[in-house]
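Work Package 4 report. The design task specified in the project plan requires that, given a folded chain encoded as C-alpha cells, an amino acid be chosen for each position. We show below one input record used in the internal validation round.
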C-alpha cells in the first residue's frame, strides 16, 4: 500500500513540479539537530513542497530506502552503503556528556580512551563496534552501563546522572540540564560523518532532487 501511494505521489509530482512531496528518512541524532537548520533553509526557497519525514535507526532508515518508501536518507557513519549513492555532508567529533562529578578527576583537555574506560558509559549502538575495536587494539576494557538506539535517550540518561554518554558534537544542542558537562574525546577514530544517501537506480522526485542539490552546499564541512 505504501509503494502504491508512492507511485501516485510520483505522478502528482511530475505534474506539480516543485509542488511535490519530499519523502525523507533520518536517524534521530541528525533529525533533531543539524537537519532542522537544513530544512529551514530549504523551505525558505521551496515553501510549496510537502514533507514526509521518517525517523529511526540507521538499519530501519536504509531498509525503507531500499524498499522505496523514502527517496533520500540522512544517516551517520559507519553504515553499509549497499550500492547506494552517498555524499558526506558534515564530519563531527564525538563527545562524552554527563553530570559534572564524573569529570572532576580530569582536566579540561579532551578525554583519552583510558579515561573513558574509568566511566560508566551510556553507549549509542552506532559506535559500539568502532569503540570495541579501538579498545581491543589498546588492550583496554570499557565499563558499559547502558546500550541504546537513540542519541536523545543517551542525552536524557546522561543528564539524569546515570552515566556518561557518547554523542556527536551536534547532539550537544539537545542538552537541557545546566549541571551537565561535556568533554571532547581525543581519539580521531571516534568521529562521525553525516551522509545523504539515495538509490541511484530508483526514481528521484523533483522535490528530492531539489533537496539533494540544496544539501550539496554542506559537503565542504565533511572534508
Amino acid at each position: 500500500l505504501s509503494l502504491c501511494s508512492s507511485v501516485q505521489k510520483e505522478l502528482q509530482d511530475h505534474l506539480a513540479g516543485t509542488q511535490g512531496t519530499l519523502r525523507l528518512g533520518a536517524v534521530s541524532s541528525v533529525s533533531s539537530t543539524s537537519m532542522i537548520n537544513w530544512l529551514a533553509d530549504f523551505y525558505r526557497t521551496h515553501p510549496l513542497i510537502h514533507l514526509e519525514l521518517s525517523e529511526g535507526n540507521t538499519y530501519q532508515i536504509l531498509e525503507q530506502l531500499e524498499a522505496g518508501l523514502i527517496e533520500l536518507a540522512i544517516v551517520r557513519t559507519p553504515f553499509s552503503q549497499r550500492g547506494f549513492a552517498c555524499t558526506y555532508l558534515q564530519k563531527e567529533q564525538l563527545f562524552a556528556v554527563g553530570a559534572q562529578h564524573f569529570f572532576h578527576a580530569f582536566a579540561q583537555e579532551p578525554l583519552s580512551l583510558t579515561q573513558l574506560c574509568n566511566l560508566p558509559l551510556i553507549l549509542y549502538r552506532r559506535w559500539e563496534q568502532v569503540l570495541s575495536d579501538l579498545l581491543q587494539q589498546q588492550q583496554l576494557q570499557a565499563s558499559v552501563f547502558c546500550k541504546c538506539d537513540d542519541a536523545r535517550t543517551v542525552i536524557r540518561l546522561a543528564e539524569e546522572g546515570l552515566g556518561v554518554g557518547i554523542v556527536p558534537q551536534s547532539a550537544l544542542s539537545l542538552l537541557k540540564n545546566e549541571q551537565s558537562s561535556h568533554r571532547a574525546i581525543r581519539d580521531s577514530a571516534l568521529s562521525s560523518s553525516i551522509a545523504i544517501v539515495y538509490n541511484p537506480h530508483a526514481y528521484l522526485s523533483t522535490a528530492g532532487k531539489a533537496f539533494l542539490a540544496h544539501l550539496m552546499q554542506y559537503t565542504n564541512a565533511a572534508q
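The radius of gyration is 19 Å. Validation will be extended to a larger panel in the next phase.
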